[in-house]
Specification:
Rossmann fold, about 450 residues, globular, 15 strands, disordered N terminus
Length: about 450
C-alpha cells in the first residue's frame, strides 16, 4: 500500500478596475501570488488510512529547501446525499446545490487508442464485474479515448446507468481496433519479411531501406498517438476543472506513450504540449492511476509469435512508463495482475481520507523550470508517495520575478481574498429576483439608472 501526495501549482493573477464611466481614466493594479497545493493520503503498513495528522507532523521541501506550510486540512469521505433546498419566495432563485459534492471523484478512462481489441474486451468485463461491488453513493464518470476523447457516462452512482454505458455494443464504448497501434501479427509479419529477405540474400542496403521505412511509419503512428493522448488529457482536465477537490483518473491501456513530468527535460517534439498538459493536471488536482489492460501474462519469451525473440524489454519499458506516470502525478501503477478492479478500489479508497496542505515557495522566481518536491513525516514511518514537482511557468505577458520594491502596496489588501481555504466561486450563494413582464414595472424613459 502506498501514500498518495499531489502538488498543485497555482498562479493567481488578479486585475481590479474600479467601476467608472468610460470617459474616466483610472489606474489598475495587478497582484500575483503563487501557492503550491498538495493532497496527502497517509497509509500504515497494512494499507489503512491514517487519520488525525497535524500540520506540525509534516515537512515539505522544494529543490531541497524547507518550506513553510501555510494551510493544512483533513478531508474525510462523506457520502453524496440530497440536501434540502431552502424555501424561496415566489420569483426568487438561487445557485444553491441540491447535492453535496464529495471531496474527491473518480474517472475511468478506457483508452482504446492505445489498447489491443482483445484487451479492450477484458477491461470492459473486469470493470463490469467491479461495479457489482461499487459502494453506494460513489459517483464515477466514464470516458473512452479513440481518435478523440468521448464521454459515455457523466458522474453518477447509479449502477444501472454505469453498466448500460459499458455494455453497449455500439458507440464509443464498443470494442474497436486502433489503426495507430501496431498489433502482434503486424510486428511478426514485418519481422518475417526481414528474415525472408535475409534468407534470399537480398542486398543489405535494400534490407536496411525496408527497416528504415518500417521504423519511420511506426514512429509516425506513435507521434500521432502521443498528440491525441495529450489533447485528450487536456480536455479531460478542463472538464474536471469545475469540480472541487481531488480527481483520480484510472487509465486503462496497453501502452502509455507519455510522461507528463520528465525530470531530465522535455522532448523537443512534444515539450510544449507535455508541459501544458502537466500544468493543467497539476492545477486541477488530477492524479493518474495507470492500469495495464493486458492483465497477467506469462514470460513473453516463450510465446509462439515471438519465436524465441524476447519482448521482455518492451514490457519493462511499459511498466517503467506506468510507474513514472503514477509517481509524477501521485497515483499508483497496476501491471502484471488480473485484478484490475483493485486499481479502482485503491483509487476510491485514496479519496476516503486525505489531507490538503499549501505553501508559498521560498524561491519566488517564475522561470518556467521544473521544481522538485519532497515531503516527509517528522516521527512516524508511514509510507508516502506524492507528486514530485511542478513547472514554475513563465508567461508571455510577463509576470516578473518577485520584487517587493516594485509592488503596489495597495494590492496586498486583496491577497487574502485569493488565499487557499476561502470559498470557491461556486460556494458563494446568491439569490436572483426575476419578475415576468406583466409583473415588472417599466422604467420611466430617460430615468437615471
Amino acid at each position: 500500500m502506498s501514500l498518495r501526495l499531489r502538488a498543485t501549482f497555482f498562479l493567481f493573477a488578479l486585475t481590479v478596475v474600479p467601476l467608472c464611466s468610460q470617459e474616466q481614466s483610472v489606474p489598475s493594479f495587478k497582484a500575483e501570488t503563487r501557492i503550491v497545493l498538495v493532497d496527502l493520503v497517509v497509509t500504515d503498513g497494512k494499507g489503512n488510512a491514517v487519520p488525525n495528522l497535524e500540520k506540525s507532523d509534516v515537512l515539505v521541501f522544494e529543490n531541497g529547501a524547507p518550506q513553510t506550510i501555510s494551510f493544512f486540512e483533513e478531508h474525510k469521505s462523506t457520502p453524496t446525499a440530497p440536501v434540502k433546498s431552502p424555501w424561496m419566495p415566489p420569483h426568487i432563485f438561487s445557485n444553491f446545490q441540491p447535492v453535496q459534492l464529495p471531496d474527491s471523484v473518480n474517472v475511468l478512462v478506457l483508452d482504446w487508442l492505445n489498447t489491443q481489441p482483445q484487451d479492450q474486451v477484458y477491461v470492459r468485463s473486469e470493470i463490469t464485474k467491479y461495479l457489482q461491488s461499487l459502494p453506494s453513493n460513489t459517483p464515477l464518470a466514464v470516458f473512452v479515448l479513440t481518435s478523440g476523447l468521448h464521454i459515455i457516462q457523466g458522474f453518477t452512482s447509479d449502477l444501472a446507468e454505469l453498466q448500460a454505458a459499458l455494455n453497449t455494443s455500439k458507440g464509443a464504448a464498443a470494442t474497436q481496433p486502433s489503426p495507430l497501434l501496431p498489433t502482434d501479427s503486424k510486428n511478426s509479419a514485418e519481422q518475417t519479411t526481414i528474415e525472408l529477405m535475409q534468407m534470399n540474400n537480398t542486398a543489405p542496403v535494400t534490407i536496411e531501406a525496408v527497416r528504415t521505412e518500417m521504423a519511420e511509419h511506426a514512429a509516425s503512428d506513435t507521434s500521432k498517438r502521443i498528440r491525441i493522448t495529450l489533447q485528450a488529457f487536456q480536455q479531460l482536465a478542463r472538464y474536471l476543472s469545475t469540480i472541487p477537490g481531488r480527481k483520480n483518473v484510472i487509465w486503462f491501456a496497453d501502452s502509455f506513450p507519455i510522461a507528463f513530468f520528465p525530470e531530465g527535460g522535455l522532448p523537443h517534439d512534444y515539450g510544449g504540449e507535455l508541459q501544458k498538459t502537466g500544468d493543467i493536471l497539476t492545477t486541477h488536482q488530477i492524479s493518474i492511476y495507470p492500469v495495464s489492460a493486458a492483465g497477467l501474462r506469462g514470460d513473453p519469451t516463450y510465446e509462439a509469435q515471438n519465436a524465441g525473440r524476447s519482448s521482455e524489454r518492451s514490457e519493462n519499458l511499459t511498466q517503467f512508463a506506468m510507474a513514472q506516470l503514477a509517481k509524477d502525478t501521485g497515483g499508483e501503477a497496476f501491471y502484471n495482475t488480473n485484478d484490475l478492479a483493485l486499481a479502482i478500489t485503491r483509487a476510491v479508497n485514496d479519496g476516503s481520507l486525505y489531507y490538503t496542505l499549501t505553501y508559498t515557495p521560498s524561491n519566488r522566481k517564475i522561470d518556467g523550470k521544473y521544481r522538485k518536491i519532497e515531503v516527509k513525516l517528522k516521527h512516524e514511518k508511514y509510507k508516502l508517495s506524492y507528486r514530485r514537482g511542478y513547472y514554475a511557468d513563465s508567461y508571455a505577458d510577463g509576470p516578473k520575478p518577485w520584487d517587493n520594491t516594485n509592488r503596489n502596496s495597495a494590492a496586498d489588501h486583496l491577497l487574502p481574498f485569493v488565499a487557499f481555504g476561502l470559498p470557491n466561486f461556486d460556494q458563494i450563494l446568491y439569490k436572483v429576483r426575476f419578475l415576468p413582464p406583466h409583473l415588472s414595472p417599466h422604467p420611466v424613459p430617460l430615468a437615471p439608472a
